[in-house]
Specification:
It is a single chain. This protein is an alpha/beta fold and 451 residues long. The protein has helices spanning 9-15, 44-56, 66-86, 99-117, 146-157, 177-182, 206-223, 245-248, 299-338, 370-376, 398-402, 407-410, 424-441; strands at residues 32-33, 93-96, 137-141, 162-166, 188-192, 229-233, 252-256, 266-270, 343-345, 358-363, 380-381, 413-417. The strands form 3 sheets. The protein has a 7-stranded mixed beta sheet, sandwiched between helices. Residues 1-6, 8-28 and 121-128 have low confidence and may be disordered.
């Protein structure tokens, strides 16, 4: 996809309006941004927090003079805000450069800890561990983000770990708890399942998986087998639905700022950091973040991340309701204008919860591949799937294929994701734009009233 611009100034102004408010008569716009699952613009309050920190908290947070103490205080406040957003403790928050680092840190930590505690030399127990001599085993699913999939594949190539990629159900689009538990082995040390899929919006049954894993851990403890830690990448869920680590029952949770109108840094929640849940640093340096993630802290971006978390805590229900209303209207308009025979909604699985903002659909027809449709659009800014797969050419989305979507349908997929400022009027503009794009590709030209 071509480079996209940030939402227009009109859309930016809507961000500051009461969450969930609609402007049915918005003025004509040159473009409508519907790729919020790829990234979000900074909220005005976040920009202000970043700017203020740049001005007032430029000092090194480890220094004792006023600018340093100010920076340290800002970092502490942001840590509290992140913890409140997810229902955890500020002691268990570690700042990172983003979701990719957080996910890699989880995987490397668990593997390193396993090798330290389940080898003949490192086994502290008077009897050998049943996992002794085995390589660590990790369970995940087939629709995870590349920042989970690729590091796991690399560990397998290096023969450092074994991994089971559990297929998602074509009926639900979910990694089913039964299938996850069936994949567990004596040497399993980590289960990592995303909270919400970035392409389909499907919410994974993480609470059920965690309940089952905790029950299994009680049995494993009695036999000396390693405890299974549970991690979820919550990048897509935060800011779109309530996320609570106690309800989820996870040991580790990945936070990504630019998915909820914050800056492009992230954090990692670690339950009982260093005590209940081990964390082994990948970097070594000056001791910041209690040595778990050293390096002088990026105070301005951390300030912005904290402010973005505050906004989510205060407004999440309103954000969710507004996005669901606009997304549902979008899907209704698509079906009404194109008809059920012409359009296939790829993300609707009966009885399965999904993100309130995500619409994944395909036009039926050999000329209507997703990239071709987008190339013809003059208003819509969106994607055919995950932004990190933008260099995959016309290959259909592996995520959709693994969810049971036929190849010819998956190849034509478009992912539209609405945001806090998206309006019904903008949806009407987008549907009209899609009508014209489809007509041009099918050689009909003009502006059809319907297809």
């Amino acid at each position: 996809m071509e480079k996209t611009r940030a939402p227009s100034s009109h859309a930016q102004r809507l961000v500051a309006s009461p969450p969930g408010g609609h402007e049915e008569k918005s003025p004509p716009e040159s473009s409508v941004y519907m790729d919020y699952n790829a990234t979000t613009p900074l909220e005005p309050a976040v920009i202000q927090a970043v700017t203020q920190a740049l001005q007032d908290a430029w000092g090194n947070p480890s220094s004792p003079y006023p600018a340093g103490r100010k920076a340290k205080d800002i970092i502490g406040a942001a840590r509290e805000s992140l913890a409140k957003m997810i229902g955890g403790s500020s002691r268990d928050i570690v700042f990172t450069s983003g979701g990719t680092e957080s996910n890699n840190l989880v995987i490397r930590s668990v593997v390193t800890h396993f090798h330290k505690t389940h080898t003949a030399e490192g086994d502290p127990a008077p009897r050998h561990s049943p996992a002794e001599g085995a390589v660590p085993h990790i369970v995940t699913c087939t629709v995870e983000h590349d920042s989970i999939r690729l590091p796991l594949e690399r560990l397998v190539e290096e023969q450092v770990a074994e991994v089971t990629f559990v297929p998602v159900s074509p009926v639900s689009g979910q990694a089913e708890a039964d299938d996850i538990l069936a994949a567990v082995r004596p040497a399993t040390c980590l289960v990592t399942v995303m909270l919400a899929n970035n392409e389909t919006g499907v919410i994974m049954p993480v609470p059920e998986i965690s309940r089952r894993v905790r029950a299994l851990n009680r049995e494993r403890a009695a036999s000396g087998r390693p405890v299974i830690l549970l991690h979820t990448d919550a990048a897509q869920a935060l800011g779109k639905r309530r996320v609570d680590v106690e309800d989820l029952g996870v040991d580790l949770l990945t936070i990504v700022g630019h998915k909820f109108y914050g800056p492009r840094i992230g954090a990692l929640y670690v339950r009982g950091l260093g005590e209940h849940t081990p964390l082994c640093p990948m970097l070594f340096g000056g001791g910041q973040e209690r040595n778990f993630r050293p390096g002088t802290e990026n105070t301005p971006m951390i300030a912005g991340l904290g402010k973005a978390a505050e906004l989510v805590t205060e407004n999440c229900e309103a954000y969710e309701a507004h996005m669901r209303d606009v997304r549902d209207y979008l899907e209704e308009r698509l079906v009404a204008e194109f008809g059920e025979k012409k359009i296939h909604l790829n993300c609707q699985f009966p009885g399965v919860e999904r993100l309130p903002n995500t619409c994944n659909f395909s036009f039926r027809g050999p000329q209507l591949q997703g990239r071709a449709v987008l190339a013809q659009c003059r208003v819509l800014q969106a994607s055919v799937g995950a932004a990190c797969h933008s260099d995959h050419g016309d290959r259909p989305s592996p995520v959709l294929l693994r969810c049971g979507v036929p190849v010819d349908v998956a190849r034509n997929a478009l992912r539209l994701s609405v945001g806090r400022s998206t309006t019904r009027a903008q949806v009407d503009l987008v549907v009209r734009d899609l009508q014209q794009a489809v007509a041009r590709l099918e050689g009909r030209g003009g502006t059809p009233s319907g297809v």
